[in-house]
Amino acid sequence: MDSSIPSETAESTQSTGDEAFQLLSDETRLAVLQVLWESHDPANETPMRFAELRQRIGVEDPGRLNYHLNKLTGYFVRRTEDGYELRDSGKRIVRMLLSGTAIDDPEIEPVAVDISCWYCGGKPEWSYRDGWRYLECTDCDARCVDTFSPGVISKNEFPPSGLRNRTPNEINEADRIWGTHRRASVIDGVCPECASDMPVTAVDICDDHHPDWNEYQFCEGCRSLFWMLVSHVCEGCKYRWRMPTLFYPSRQPAVTAFYYEHGIEFDLATYEQRALLLDFEEELLSEDPLRIGISIPLKDEALRVTYDERMEVVDVNRRGRIH
């Protein structure tokens, strides 16, 4: 089949998406979502009667409100015998707006946080701007990719709602937990944005990888500190995530058990253990079929996890470490 011709499913998805965007372009429909959300009690979900909804919104013409409700029903609103309530899709729309993603643009100047730089051990500062959280080391100019400014050791999307009523250290911890779960979801092939399938779409391996590990500066060829990078793209919402292959062993129980046997409660989610990634050893075992080995050395042993082109584990091997 010609891949340039949209499939029936793709056309249907596009059509549904167009209709959903059009629904949200009307102020009355947005008001319906807002009022139903404000009356929503998760512990006691009670639909709202038509008359009360009309009064709360301030629409005098019942026919006009009924017209807009009919448009929303099936997408974001559910009609029951007792009245109207939000569908889960409607709740997600309101939550997105409440998260501040679409309405706020806060900025927080750099402030010290209680963690160490995983490259040099120095002290990073936390800041927030344009919807992104930044960690910048004050002691080194580490630059793992060319899209990061010198000294930026980590950069992550984080909704403004996560800033409310938290100190910088509390925000940083919340961001760590939030980001860790999202990364785990991507590794497991489920989009953290819409829950659609999010398969591996590319494994990029630099042919002549020469980063400056002494200064933690990216390779001029691939513009990354890391030799192998994996891309996932969601089949539903087109959300893209790219990360080093070195993150993938963190999802393997054998790796957690290996560390535990050596007296380490392994949790790559913590910033303090992020430096463990730098000890992992990558091998390109074969190109066709693609096989990537990632070895975790500890004392006199090493655990090697082998992945295929979809970054699925095909082998786990434990052996004495080769010196």
Automatic annotation (TrEMBL):
Name of protein: Helix-turn-helix domain-containing protein
Organism: Natronosalvus rutilus
Domain DUF7347 per the UniProt entry, residue ranges: 18-96
The DUF7351 domain, residue ranges: 115-313
